[in-house]
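To: structure desk
From: M.T.
Subject: fold request, one chain
Message: Could you run this one when you get a chance? Sequence is below, nothing fancy, just the single chain.
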Amino acid sequence: MTWAEVPRRSRQVLVVTGHDRNSPVSTAVLYERAGDGWRAGAARAAHNALHGWTDDHREGDLRSPIGVHTLTDAGGRLADPGTRLPYDRSARFTTSGTGFEGEPLSGSFDYVIAIDYNRRPGTSPLDRTRPLGPDRGGGIWLHVDHGGPTRGCVSLAEGAMKELLRALDPGREPVVVMGDAASLER
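Reply: Done. Structure tokens follow.
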């Protein structure tokens, strides 16, 4: 499924590999296409949805959608850290309360990158347009890790998010390949 679905023109691929189908724990690696093949960056710890992964994501299922998705837009509550992606800074990137393991959620949306799953590319990550319909969920982002599972997003440590925002180049047509290890081997 994975590499075969990566568009030939993509020169940056973020691979998020879940430990297993039902695990909220993942590893993220940014691959960059060089003249002689793909070069892997550092492996980063990540979280995904509480109940793991799914091929048929639905609103509220607490699973992250498996697949290959473009990365076209970013934003956050904090100032642009130097990304080349269109960046929407807004106070609306806020969340409060606690996560599934009692961890505070504040700061989770300081930096986000919209995963183009059931959204309209070229718009703010805050745009709630859902081309596949609202029952298929949406608002799937890469965002700052809060120390526990997400509702459907993928989260990385704040430093890793800043590095990723600075590294992604729309001219290299970045995508994310995400899912549990067994699904990514199909």
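Reply (cont.): Residues 27 and 105 are 21 Å apart (CA to CA). Let me know if you need anything else for the meeting.
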